[in-house]
Amino acid sequence: MKVRDFMITKLFTVKRNTTVKELLQVLNSNRIGGVPVVDDNGHLAGIVSDGDVLRYLAPKPLGFTGLIYIIEDGEIEDIIKEKLHTSVKEIMTKRNVVSVSPDDDFEEALRLLSRHHYKKLPVVNGAGRVIGVISRGDIIDNISKKIIIS
Questions:
Q1: Quick one: pLDDT at residue 145?
Q2: Per-domain boundaries in the chain
Q3: pTM here?
Q4: In the chain, which end has fewer C-beta atoms inside a 10 angstrom radius, N or C?
Q5: What is the pLDDT of residues 60-103, one digit of tens each?
Q6: What is the pLDDT of residues 2-18, one digit of tens each?
Q7: 117-126 pLDDT, tens digit each
Q8: Which residues are CB-contacts of 141 (< 8 A; sequence separation ≥ 6)?
Q9: Is 34 within 8 Å of 120 (Cβ atoms)?
Q10: With 0-12 CB in 10 A as exposed, 13-18 as middle and 19+ as buried, what is 138?
Q11: How far apart are the first and last CA of the chain?
Q12: Residue 100, beta-bridge partner list
């Protein structure tokens, strides 16, 4: 079996200049936990997840014990509203982004997802364009449909 047999091609992506607010709208309206970040040519530039957003929005610990948090002037809601205007490029994972090819063995995707605790992997074609994603949920769903039911 190959990655192409399990990947999702109904693809949602964002650009580097997409705001966190726009990203949240994409994630929420499509009930997904992350998306590839692409350049104007559809090439993989990074990946951003709901976890990246939470880490960015969370109050930052102050001091060695981490028991005191900095709350800037204003309420937490105001701080979050301001942070929603930040570009995705500020919070996305850009280094060491792991991807797979549609021709890679399904087992390789399984290894990568389990070894690194990734939730999803972008699927990139030979030209470097993102053409799909493969996620843990997609694999579980497809295994139950294609292998267990067979």
A1: 79
A2: 3-148
A3: 0.83
A4: C
A5: 665 555 444 555 545 677 878 889 999 999 999 998 899 999 99
A6: 999 889 999 999 999 99
A7: 888 999 999 9
A8: none
A9: yes
A10: middle
A11: 15
A12: 123
Strands 130-135 and 120-124: antiparallel
From the CB of residue 98, how many other CB atoms can be counted at a distance below 10 Å?
Answer: 14
Structure-block tokens of residue 127: 């030209």
Instruction: Rounding to the nearest 10 degrees, give the CA dihedral for residues 113, 116, 119, 124.
Output: -60
CATH architecture, range 3-148: Roll (3.10)
Helix extents (H) in 1-135: 20-30, 50-57, 76-83, 106-116
Task: Encode 30-60: b = buried (16+ Cβ within 10 Å), e = exposed.
Answer: eebebbbbbeeebebbbbbbbebbeeebeee
Give burial (CB, 10 Å; 0-12/13-18/19+) of 127: exposed
